[in-house]
Amino acid sequence: MRCPLVALSLALAACADFPRDAAATQDRIRADGVIRVGMVEGAAADPASEAVLARVSSEMDARIQRLPGHGEALLEGLATGEYDLVYGHFADSSPWATRVHFGTPPGGPDQPPASLPLPRFAFRMGENGWIAQVERAAP
Fold first, then answer.
1. H-helix or E-strand containing 130?
2. Structure confidence by residue, pLDDT tens digits, 118-138
3. Contact 89, 40 (CB under 8 A)
4. Using CA atoms, how far apart are residues 77 and 59, in angstroms rounded to an integer?
5. Rounded Cα distance, 127 and 22, in Å
6. Taking residues 78-85, what's their average pLDDT?
7. Does the reported pTM lie above 0.90?
8. DSSP letter assigned to residue 21
9. Strands (E), 16-104
10. Whose CA is closest to 108, among 46, 54, 64?
11. How far apart are CA 1 and CA 98, in angstroms?
12. What is the pLDDT of residue 130?
């Protein structure tokens, strides 16, 4: 009887660090004190997205560094770790959906039509802890 309890305890303890960031985005932000946000030119952040950035910045005790650019270049930089987030108007059906994760539109519909570009954040694929933290900060 005791063996299953020990195994269960060990399994639960191993899950304490989930979700994890494959490329350690949260660790880098904590160490540097900076959240690097690529801002797609022409896509001014809406109030809901600004609120998300403010909450996450406060939680991480980090400042926001906004870096303007064009969508393709920013998403490429996101995929390679140059940015922690990219903000713009993205559709779930974008060809980039296989290389980056498009988050839920802050303040928007949970399940928008796949072809509808909506204001939202894009994340580096596999940074599940970071994605969860930002998504939880949405109003």
1. helix 128-136
2. 999 999 999 999 999 999 998
3. yes
4. 24
5. 6
6. 97
7. no
8. B
9. 34-40, 63-69, 85-90, 100-102
10. 46
11. 46
12. 97
Tokens 């304490």, located at residue: 16
The crossing angle, in degrees rounded to 10, of helices 47-60 and 128-136 is: 120
Place of tokens 């998504």: 135
Contacts 24+ apart (CB under 8 A), 52-60: 52/106, 52/121, 52/134, 52/137, 52/138, 52/139, 55/137, 56/133, 56/134, 56/137, 59/133, 59/137, 60/26, 60/29, 60/30, 60/35
- How far is Cα 64 from Cα 135, in angstroms, rounded to an integer? 17
Closest by CA to 83, choosing from 11, 133, 32, is 32
Partners of 119 in beta bridges: 89
Both tokens assigned to 113: 């039509």
128 in Cβ contact with 114 (< 8 Å): no
Report d(CA 75, CA 116) in Å as an integer.
18
